[in-house]
């Protein structure tokens, strides 16, 4: 029973985790990209379409990553080179993604999808309980953890990470030191797009292998909230994503077990939990200020 | 102003040319709550619209707006259609009820058709289908086929239509196995494939070996396929998603109704009414019975024939969850009682959300 619940929590949390970790890097570089939902849904439709046409899930995943990056590149050009308003551009990106994906996906409605195979890690996957939960997942679940480790290490233990955070905290100084703010931000935005595309592929190839319009159903926005929730720390994103996944899945299990709690209350629990944590975090001013990228959302125009 | 003038000139020209001109005689417009690609509720309405186009050819022009949110947006969308010269406007979600009535008052010459609502006017008709008839049949199939005696029911919102669906399902199941259980999970959404899939998994983990749903995506059925249990399609035939899992599907077929009503607009004898038809009139259609032994198929077909012959699933004895009698032996609930149903029958393992 517990094992079954845990398995559903993992599938519910993985897309949130992947998208949030990507957005975290973007925001650490000082850019606020509200287009996660749009990039995610483009990843979902392109991933599905390519997997369907080629018969290869792996190709589908790569195409989804590419689609997310292409969307984010559009965003990057607008906000970095043309210095467009980041909030408005991000919102536009979401709207564009939802509309465009519906158009591309029209041919794939009602077509059964390709399910990514589960990876069975030999020996380890046969351990009772631990085996099925940790060693019989599809590849993207492992990738999500690898991504978190990579980002956590990269941001805080490498030179590249230090420069990226410097750009996010004080783009003026970073520029004066000779770092190309625009180039670094461009790379960060592309990374965020790749992650969002990957998260979309997880939805249309692993979570619910099919294409339907608007299938992300707001998960991009939750990923954005998770970044704030984690106060821009990668390991806390894992906690947040799994907490969110667990609460939303437990709601369904509690109902099937006939707990006498109104379902509307249970459905709102993940959101209530997010609000409570946000309040707790922002109550500690010092901690918030330390981690919030100081230049988040501020446009940068290099003076020559 | 200029374009308005142009339009007027054009209208006069067409009027002069008579109905032999290229312009359509009637413009039928549709407002959808979801994307046409949801492969469920809105998809089926759009299939109905396409059937109208095919049936009438050049005589009827159609237009649609998709993903129109219920509320103020809906009013604007409907009013836009009314101004654009639509002769009949179909508004296809419960939440469009008040906006439809409001716009209809301003445009007395335009005909309005509102799906699943209960407010009518001289130029506003309502239409709905008796989906619960199909649910009675799938309840019977579930009770015949289930080994655990437990079905999982993924429900959207506690509105009468959903509640009567759950009751009809269980009534059908109880007619085969009086101890049959149905576990209800409310997901509080019409459409979220991920959440629907998670709900299906939770129900299967807790012993349900039949999954049925009153939400719009194909995800629960796919989970059933993956886990080796069975289920039923919702709104459209979902057999492609679950070749081994789908027993049948309750299909909404709006085409006959749309064609009939557009014909009436063409003929000039359209009147307001409240249409509520089911299997007999072809507004609700059962998908082919598959993955079932022959005797169960026969039973399902017999029940289908009985309902088409005028028998109503909500025929007594029906006992409410609290033990009071809703209908005595042989008494059939009237339409109002079914359309406003806000109570469970005895045997539902759930407390109705208030």
CATH class of the largest domain in chain B: Alpha Beta
Q: How many strand segments of chain B?
A: 14
Main β-sheet of chain B, in a few words? 6 strands, parallel
Order of helices and strands of chain A: HHHHHHHHHHHHH
Q: Please indicate the percent range of residues of chain B in DSSP E strands (runs of 2 or more).
A: 15-25%
CA distance, first residue to last residue of chain B: 52 Å
Structural class of chain A: mainly alpha
Strand order in the largest sheet of chain B: 2-1-3-4-5-11
Give the SSE string of chain B: HEHEHEHEEHEHEHEHEEHEEHEEH
For the record, what is the CATH homologous superfamily label of the largest domain in chain B?
Response regulator
Q: Which structural class fits the helix and strand makeup of chain B?
A: alpha/beta
Q: Which geometry of chain A do the CA atoms define?
A: globular
The percentage helix of chain B is 25-40%
- What is the annotated CATH architecture of the largest domain in chain B? 3-Layer(aba) Sandwich
**Low-confidence sequence ranges of chain B:** 1-22
3D structure, described in words:
The complex is a heterodimer of chains A (304) and B (354). In chain A, α2 runs parallel beside α4 (86-105) and α3 runs antiparallel to α4. Chain A has one domain (2-291): ABC transporter involved in vitamin B12 uptake, BtuC (Orthogonal Bundle). Chain A is 73% helix and 0% strand. Chain A is built from 13 helices and no strands. Chain A is mainly α and 304 residues long. Chain B has 354 residues and is of the alpha/beta class. Chain B has two domains: 11-129, Response regulator (Rossmann fold); 131-252 and 285-339, 3-Layer(aba) Sandwich (Rossmann fold), CATH 3.40.50.2300. Helix content of chain B is 40%, strand content 19%. A six-stranded parallel sheet of chain B has the order 2-1-3-4-5-11, with helices on both faces. Chain B has a six-stranded mixed sheet with strand order 7-6-8-9-10-12, sandwiched between helices. In chain B, β8, α8 and β9 (230-235) form a beta-alpha-beta unit. In chain B, α3 runs parallel beside α4 (97-106) and α7 runs parallel beside α8 (219-227). Chain B is globular. The model of chain B is unreliable at 1-22 (pLDDT under 50). The A-B interface holds A 1, 4-5, 7-8, 11-12, 15, 102, 105-106, 109-112, 115, 203, 207-210, 212-215, 217, 219, 248-249, 252-253, 255-258, 260, 262-264, 267 and B 34-39, 43, 67, 152, 183-189, 191-199, 201-203, 205-206, 208, 217-219, 222, 226, 236, 240-241, 349-351, 353-354.
């Amino acid at each position: 029973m517990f094992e079954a619940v845990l398995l559903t929590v993992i599938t519910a949390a993985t897309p949130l985790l992947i998208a949030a970790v990507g957005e975290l890097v973007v925001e650490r570089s000082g850019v606020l990209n509200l287009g996660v939902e749009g990039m995610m849904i483009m990843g979902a439709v392109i991933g599905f379409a390519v997997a369907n046409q080629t018969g290869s899930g792996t190709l589908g995943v790569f195409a989804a990553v590419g689609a997310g990056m292409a969307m984010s590149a559009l965003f990057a050009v607008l906000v970095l080179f043309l210095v467009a308003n980041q909030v408005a551009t991000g919102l536009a990106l979401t709207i564009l993604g939802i509309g465009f994906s519906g158009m591309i996906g029209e041919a794939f409605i009602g077509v059964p999808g390709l399910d990514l195979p589960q990876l069975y890690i030999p020996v380890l996957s046969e351990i009772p309980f631990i085996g099925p939960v940790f060693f019989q997942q599809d590849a993207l679940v492992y990738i999500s953890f690898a991504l978190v480790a990579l980002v956590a290490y990269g941001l805080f233990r490498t030179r590249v990470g230090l420069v990226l955070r410097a750009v996010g905290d004080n783009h003026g100084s970073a520029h004066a030191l000779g770092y190309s703010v625009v180039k670094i931000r461009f790379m960060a935005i592309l990374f965020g797009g790749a992650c969002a595309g990957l998260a979309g592929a997880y939805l249309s190839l692993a979570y619910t292998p099919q294409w339907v319009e608007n299938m992300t159903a707001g998960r991009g926005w939750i990923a954005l909230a998770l970044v704030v929730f984690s106060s821009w720390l990668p390991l806390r994103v894992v906690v947040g994503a799994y907490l969110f996944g667990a609460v939303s899945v437990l709601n369904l299990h509690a109902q099937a077990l006939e707990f006498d709690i109104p379902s509307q209350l249970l459905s709102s629990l993940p959101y209530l939990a997010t609000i409570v944590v946000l309040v707790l975090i922002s109550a500690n001013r010092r901690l918030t200020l330390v981690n919030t990228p100081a230049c988040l959302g501020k446009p940068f125009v290099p003076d020559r | 102003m200029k374009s308005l003038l142009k339009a007027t000139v054009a209208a006069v020209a067409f009027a002069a040319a008579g109905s032999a001109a290229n312009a359509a005689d009637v413009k039928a417009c549709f407002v959808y709550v979801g994307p046409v690609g949801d492969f469920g509720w809105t998809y089926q309405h759009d299939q109905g619209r396409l059937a109208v186009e095919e049936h009438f050819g050049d005589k009827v022009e159609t237009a649609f707006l998709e993903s129109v949110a219920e509320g103020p947006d809906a009013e604007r969308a409907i009013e836009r259609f009314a101004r654009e010269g639509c002769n009949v406007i179909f508004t296809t979600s419960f939440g469009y009820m008040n906006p439809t009535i409001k716009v209809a008052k301003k445009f007395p010459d335009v005909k309005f058709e509102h799906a699943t609502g209960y407010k009518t006017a001289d130029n506003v008709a309502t239409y709905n289908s008796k989906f619960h008839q199909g649910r009675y049949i799938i309840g019977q199939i579930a009770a015949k086929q289930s080994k655990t005696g437990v079905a999982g029911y993924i429900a959207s919102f506690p509105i009468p239509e959903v509640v009567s669906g759950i009751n009809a399902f269980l009534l059908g199941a109880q007619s085969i196995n009086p101890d049959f259980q149905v576990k209800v999970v409310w997901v509080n959404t019409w459409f979220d494939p991920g959440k629907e899939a998670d709900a299906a998994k939770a129900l299967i983990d807790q012993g349900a070996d039949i999954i049925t749903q009153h939400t719009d995506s194909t995800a629960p059925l796919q989970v059933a396929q993956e886990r080796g249990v069975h289920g039923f399609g919702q709104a459209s035939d979902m057999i492609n998603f679950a070749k081994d899992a789908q027993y049948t599907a309750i299909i909404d077929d709006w085409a006959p109704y749309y064609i009939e009503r557009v014909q009436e607009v063409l003929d000039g004898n359209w009147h307001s009414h409240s249409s509520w038809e089911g299997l007999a009139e072809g507004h609700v259609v059962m998908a082919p019975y598959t993955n079932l032994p022959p005797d169960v198929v026969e039973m399902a077909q017999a029940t289908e024939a009985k309902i088409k012959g005028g028998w109503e699933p909500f025929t007594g004895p029906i006992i409410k969850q609290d033990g009071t009698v809703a209908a005595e032996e042989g008494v059939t609930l009237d339409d109002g009682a079914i359309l406003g149903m806000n109570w469970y029958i005895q045997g539902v393992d759930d407390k109705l959300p208030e």
